[in-house]
Amino acid sequence: MAALLVWIGLMGVAVLRRERVAGALSGSLEDRVALATLVGGLATVWVWSWRDVAKPPFRWLGVSQWALAGRAFARNRLAVLGAIGILGLYLIALLTPFLAPADPALLGDLLTELLAPPSETHLLGTDHFARDVLSRVLYGARVSLLIGFVAVGISVTVGTLLGAVAGSLGGWVDTIVMRFVDMVISFPQLVLLITIIALFEPSIFLIVAVLGLTQWTGTARLVRGEVLSLREREYVQAAQALGFSRWRIIIAHLIPNVLGPVTVAATLGIGNTIVLEAGLSFLGLGVQPPMASWGTMVADGRNVMLQAWWLSTFPGLAIVVTVLCFNLVGDGLRDALDPRLRR
Amino acid sequence: MHRYLARRTAAAIPLVLGIATIVFFVISLAPGDPTQVLVSPGMRPEVIAQVRANFGLDQPLPVRYVRWLGALLTGDLGYSYSHGRPVLEVIGQILPNTLLLSAAALLVAFAAGVLIGIVQSLRQYSITDQALSVLALFFYSMPSFWLALMLILVFALFARNVWEWPIYFPPSGTRSIEYATLGPFERIADRIRYMTLPVTSLALVLAAGIARYTRGSMLEVIRQDYVRTARAKGLPESRVVFKHALRNALIPVITLLGLYLPVLFSGTVFIETVFGWPGMGKTIVDAIGTRDYPLVMGTSLIFGAMVVLGNLIADMLYAVVDPRIRYE
Fold it and tell me: Residue A184's closest chain B neighbor by CA?
């Protein structure tokens, strides 16, 4: 069912935007990425639709923990809705060059189209430079999703490694890492972020780096706690008795078993990071114009709210929907991965 | 009990010093220095060097760090260029505004959040529960600055100019112009009217999280044996819920007080900026805009110290309500 919807959507894009799709191969990198997404997406759906035919005639008797969690997740309708939403958002972000009705940086006719209300030509209206708001919201999705994904990737990697090392080695390593974590956590994160970013030139790389490197503390604390309890389990003691090295135990035995809670934290973390990035952009310390970012767009609409309510409203709604999807999936994953919470 | 409190307090002091160290080194890492504001392009290099020397910026980093820390211990946070006054004086003037806003928001958030959480837990998996859960998650996913703008749009701008409601809320400021001429009760009403929108936008996001947490905590407690006993001996349900279950369910909710303080203060940065509320959050944003480094350092330090203090208070409350903690 979902596969059919994705297929119809992708084919719809391909047919309705055939001129742009045809020109994409010789276009910019963004266009080619979008084309690859379109072709790859169609191929994936096609292969996926054959899976029933290819299914082996017998079933394995045992069911893994991940499969159990997967089933529990699939029963949670809201979480599945969130997962579909995230998939849809990433597809939209990748296909934006085909989808957007106009160039996000293209200035419209400043006399007739300035702050135009939502209409057929501009579904979500235009902004104070007569740019199409819908196109800018679509291009903003790319920035938000990219920053959220990469920054959380950095913070989760750093956090997991440091947390696992602190938890399993203990002693002075543990003390130093955790005291540092305490310090960073007791800082209002936004204050730290705006201080660092404001002192340097804001750029997309700086934002990703700073967001990634200030958020690992939560993951580190979580992983350390998990590792402390895992360390006493029989299988870890067995590994120690077998004479495996500390690093082998950390990498091969401890980290795989904390991946469940870490996945939950990462999913919720992406939502949190998207809000933070929007906030920084709102204060003018995030993604710099003319690049479209949801936070910047909300800020643009601040002074003309009475004349053009759509300018702040729609980018903000986009943030809420995106973050809501990630939070729904994060909640669903937490319930699904914790056997005690399975209904 | 006393030993526990003493230990927690002692642990907080190095934490504040650590925060001070982070603040100092982050600011020192920045390219350029605060004298750039005072230096004009035509100045001779000797003059610039003299200006730098006046601020002690010609000294090596460790020397400056020790000096800064020493000044800090005597309560000297430096001089704010943009306000033309000592940093401590500036903060002393704006801190009450932020504390008022934060305290009101915390109060509203905890009252609303706990109440919603109780309602949800009593009707687990009902339509009400699920609707409130989705609603809570919706507000939880919302950037506070956008919520603030939407509230302004509806309850300040549209209410006054388009729909012409009899009641609307002011979109910015802390009190009306004729405040001085008002009577005592009108003054309170006036302050509340100006605080409604900022407090609501701060509190809603927090309340959503508190409701989620209270629901879970109540559900855990309500399944315990002593609650069943209370019901079995025929106590009225309201007494079981509020007297027996809620008391224990609220214990873990207290930790949220400590956890949410950084979130709350991050929120005030946006809310104060949006509503033009003269507090710490707006000041730090303005100070960054004017490159007023001493003020940036002072405000972030106070923010950090307030979080540590808030956590300490949460720990103490926790020890008061849960005797098991004291003997850890």
Answer: B19
